[in-house]
Specification:
The protein has six helices and eight strands. The chain has about 220 residues and is of the alpha/beta class. The protein has a single domain, classed as Vaccinia Virus protein VP39 (Rossmann fold). The chain has an eight-stranded mixed sheet with strand order 3-2-1-4-5-8-6-7, sandwiched between helices. Bound molecules: S-adenosylmethionine (SAM).
Length: about 220
């Protein structure tokens, strides 16, 4: 199924342990800069504008910096998953109004379905098969509910030049393969392309190392 993607299966807990003591939150969740982290939240804000959602699940919420940028009042309920203990403690401390579970998606028992699910920078290091992970993601979305997903793009044109090599310590995906998994699980792709997080710009998918997908459950 994932023939064009490059998938590494690493221990999730050792991946995030190495930056545990870094000073800034963006470093703790392995983003290259604060602006590249918040650019991804900017795009989510843009996509959810003018719509109201009652139930949002953020999978792999990291340090929870996202809640400083998204208006929490838009939602009746917010649930979040963060399996890494030291990250979980940071989110918990600053967000008493959110239900945060110290769990991976595979351990999470589904009680509710959601009309917004976000998964920002998670599948490249999700510690399990991206196919199983995404199948479960699709299951927890309500009919007419939305998915926002960002990840690493294997088709970035710069990888064809000699100066840019694929970092082999996390997974890189072919966007069409990810879209196919979502479609097979009853999602309709509304928008998808490349995204330059620092510039806050949607571009052709070949022009960025990051892609995004905005999809709706049928
Ligand atoms: C690159 S960080 C991004 C954090 C946050 N979404 C953000 O945008 O700042 C990826 C996060 O996903 C979490 N994660 C990885 N695999 C997961 C899984 N299987 N279930 C839930 N969370 C997971 C990691 O612990 C980490 O906090």
């Amino acid at each position: 199924m994932l023939k064009k993607s490059f998938v590494v299966n690493k221990n999730l807990y050792s991946v995030y342990k190495k930056n545990k003591n870094k000073k800034y939150n963006y470093q703790k969740v392995l983003w290259s800069s604060k602006i590249s982290m918040t650019g991804r939240y900017w795009l989510l804000n843009k996509l959810i504008k003018n719509k109201s959602y009652n139930n949002w699940l953020d999978i792999g919420t990291g340090t929870g910096d996202i809640y400083k940028y998204i208006n929490k009042n838009k939602f009746q309920n917010i649930d979040a998953l963060e399996p890494i203990n030291h990250l979980f403690k940071i989110v918990k401390k600053n967000n008493s109004d959110i239900n945060i579970y110290n769990q991976t998606l595979s351990n999470f028992k589904i009680k509710n379905k959601y009309n917004l699910v976000s998964c920002i920078g998670v599948i490249q290091n999700c510690g399990s098969s991206p196919l199983l992970f995404l199948t479960k993601v699709c299951k927890i979305i309500q009919k007419n509910g939305y998915l926002y997903l960002t990840s690493k793009n294997i088709n970035w044109a710069k990888f064809k030049s000699e100066d840019y090599n694929l970092e082999l310590d996390h997974s890189w995906f072919d966007i069409e393969e990810i879209k196919k998994i979502l479609k097979n699980n009853n999602l309709k792709i509304i928008k998808s392309d490349g995204f330059l997080p620092k510039e806050k710009k949607i571009v052709n998918y070949k022009l960025s190392h990051t892609f995004f997908i905005w999809a709706r459950k049928n």
